[in-house]
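Problem 12. The chain below contains 152 residues. Write out its predicted structure in token notation.
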Amino acid sequence: MKFYNAYINQYLKLFNKAVNTLKEAGFTNKDAFAFEVNNKVGSNKTATKNEMANNLYQLIQHIIDSDLPICTNNLYIKTNIDTWKNSVAWELHDDFFRKIKIWPEHWRTQPDSPDTLYPWGKGNWSFWEYSSHGTIKGINGNILISKINPLL
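Solution.
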């Protein structure tokens, strides 16, 4: 399984480009796609909470409605806990977002899970990026470390 990442921004005209990029990369129904929500890049720096939520919703819906072999089962929202809580008006589309798996970034080792993130609720994360200080022989510098939720 390959993961593809997309940063969300407020320019809706990029939707078709995102679909075409996935097609060109050979995206299949065995692959997963992570929508990375970041409030510190590009036009997201000035986006309102409502814009962030509405644009994320529209982008995910556009991907689902495209002719890509995709369903909500292989989609993830990857986001920093604070970004999601403070920069995305998730409650505007809570039923929709709840259908997409969550991959929170919350760098800590104790307790053994990230903070509760809504609308998913306690313990309903698929992956958890818990550190930026991993190492792999042959790679210079730190790497990000995620774990799989053993309860899902």
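Discussion. Helices lie at 15-24, 49-65, 81-87, 94-98. Students who got a different answer should revisit the alignment rule from Section 12.3.
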